[in-house]
Amino acid sequence: PAGRLRSVLKNLDRWGVDEIAVVDISHGLDQPDWRLLDEIRESAVRTPVAFGGGIRRAEHAVKAIALGCDRVIVETLLWTAPQEIAAISLAVGQQAVIGATPLVLVNSSLHAQAARGGPPMPWARFEERIAQASISEILLIDREREGAVDGNVVAAHVPPRTGGPKAIWFGGITPAQATPLFKRPDTV
Predict the structure, then answer these.
(1) pLDDT > 80? residue 153
(2) How far apart are CA 122 and CA 125, in angstroms?
(3) Percentage of residues in the chain with pLDDT exceeding 90?
(4) Confidence class of residue 181 from pLDDT cuts 50, 70 and 90?
(5) What is the pLDDT of residues 74-113, one digit of tens each?
(6) At what angle do helices 34-43 and 58-66 cross, to 10 degrees?
(7) What single-letter DSSP state applies at residue 120?
(8) Which residues neighbour 98 within 8 Å (Cβ) at sequence distance 6 or greater?
(9) Less crowded by CB within 10 Å, the N or C end of the chain?
């Protein structure tokens, strides 16, 4: 809804954002949409770009970076093949790999849930999974507030973490919520 990808990238670049995340949320991807990556490359923005969507193998990550992305975002692999994330990290460097997971509340208890659906996993169990993953950060998405501006509900349920990848918060973050989240030592 924000317009053509190239125009959005150029605007964000001109506005001086720190990093741009482009995530293809099409279901059933077994590889990235290479046309999107070509469009990112052709936009020639200076701002670092992270790309997610269909990254399933190290070759995908290597090609995405060769096409102009600085980092890749993996979500499905956290659920299905964490060993492939290790291979991706070896190929492109762990700093170039961001994990992502939607978070939901189930009976007021925090859970992670794969974007493609399936049963939610209690946060404590999922946190063990991400602590072992070869990722530099974890993008924590408030599934219910994604794209909204009325407040992130799940952030208050994520206990501060002392180890593992740092958090990137997404979904409905209000200005009042942003300051305390950015002050957390586990937030990047």
Answers:
(1) yes
(2) 6
(3) 80
(4) very high
(5) 999 999 999 999 999 999 999 999 999 999 999 999 999 9
(6) 30
(7) -
(8) 21, 50, 52, 71, 72, 73, 74, 135, 136, 137, 138, 139, 168
(9) N
Question: How far is 54 from 51, CA to CA, in rounded Å?
Answer: 10
Structure tokens at 2: 């924000």
* CB-CB contact of 158 with 180 (8 Å): no
Residue 2, CB-side half-sphere exposure with 13 Å CA sphere: 10
- 168 in Cβ contact with 137 (< 8 Å): yes
Average the pLDDT over each of 10-19, 78-87, 143-152, 160-169 and give the range with the smallest value: 143-152
Q: Are 134 and 91 in contact (CB under 8 A)?
A: no
Asked if residues 157 and 143 have their Cβ atoms less than 8 Å apart, the reply is: no
